């Protein structure tokens, strides 16, 4: 299928990635080629086929809801680019 | 002969008899790194001045890929976006290794950023070189692990395999690499790429080391909900049993146009060797093989786009400066991710987006079922399936970087295994005239690593390929 610039721009916005104009052009061309290749899947009749969401027969893995040891706030925040007290700090969201 | 040249099981024998101490191995490894690492670049952040004292070594060292968490030791997935990330915990495989008395090598193996690639050219630390010819790629994404083992800069190593990332570099570098059955090895602490495909596995100098290492890292882990709760067999028990009477399927779809003529000759000879050793082989069909690459690049990128959403400049790694939150996310991800990572995240986001989900993602999941069914059918009558690991030997650095589709197609023989969740190994089985290694891929049914080790070991012990080393 053909993928246009507007679609790539929109998807990049959904993926929260800023693209430079030359990146957008290049990506458009490459995605066009890749999707063209992927389109061979449309030749298969899969109406009666179940999707393989998972390859193992595992479902609903549960455990008892009991408190367990976890990382201390200090350890969990050690890699944070910015922190305030026991919190991750980000640019202001609400005016 | 330096201790860095021995296999892990040989060194274990020497340690046990107190002939050597762990620090002796580390000393020889460090000496080797000083000598060849500036040319090979198998490690992500190697600096000669960063070599620690070997005195602190407590056991046999193992090299770990840069996407597997090691507590306190930088784990950056060779991406700028994870700059300076020091995990606050060990991956389950790392904890298991430590418990088994294995020590973590202080440098981590280079890789394609977030394991996105087939050549290790997508690392933010630069390209790893193939020890057999420095102008050639080592394969990828676990190219650092494979090059380090091949070049005797590591005793053994861990890699990860989502579409061939252990087997293809093992093949290109002339070493052994196993992708275990999905669910055999815990993924807890492996930085997720495509969660339904990822598995951690060994890259080693011989089959016995691969069997030992698989035994150490396997087993149920409550921290990974896809980890399977069953007894792990003693894989070393499969060694030495020979190949007599084993039924091998040879899928015709793997021997078509695109397969390098020299690779084909080497594989044919290897198959003859196995027949000589008493195995019986027959042509089989995996009719949906041609759809594996397109299915993979939908499923793997869709899962990656979701998994990599966590890299947003808030919890760890790189953050771009901005006063506004959404703009901070966008700039952080624009500046932090490399070209291939952006391409895959955007492709995956597209495949999952409203209006395209059914046509791409859902359809790919259905074709994945067909691919799995193909394998189930063959394994009803055969013990294993044998193919080349890759259609070509290692390619030149830069040869495929401008054409992502061409790069994706280099994984054409390894991807189906991940989609079907089955185990497969690559072992050295010969060389091209130019002296580049060729790998033989052996696949088996889910959780039948024992058959893989049995066949691989029988072949290896009756050939000399694994003993030939590159001249660096």
| CATH-defined topology of the domain at 5-43 in chain A | Histone, subunit A
| Number of helices in the DSSP assignment of chain A | 3
- Fourth CATH level, the homologous superfamily of chain B: Amidase signature (AS) domain
- Look at the structure and give the CATH class of the domain at 5-43 in chain A: Mainly Alpha
Write out the CATH superfamily name of the domain at 5-43 in chain A. Answer: Glu-tRNAGln amidotransferase C subunit, N-terminal domain
Number of helices of chain B: 14
Largest sheet features of chain A: 2 strands, antiparallel
Q: How many angstroms separate the termini of chain A?
A: 43 Å
SSE order of chain A in H/E notation? HHHEE
State the helical fraction of chain A. Answer: 25-40%
Q: What is the CA-CA span between the terminal residues of chain B?
A: 15 Å
What is the mean pLDDT of chain B?
A: 97
Report the count of strand segments of chain B: 10
Q: Looking across the biggest beta sheet of chain A, what order are the strands in?
A: 1-2
Q: Give helix % range of chain B.
A: 25-40%
Query: What is the overall shape of chain A?
Result: flat
What descriptive keywords fit this protein?
heterodimer; A: 95 residues; mainly alpha; Histone, subunit A; two-stranded antiparallel ribbon; 3 helices; 2 strands; flat; B: alpha/beta; 10-stranded mixed β-sheet; 10 strands; 35% helix
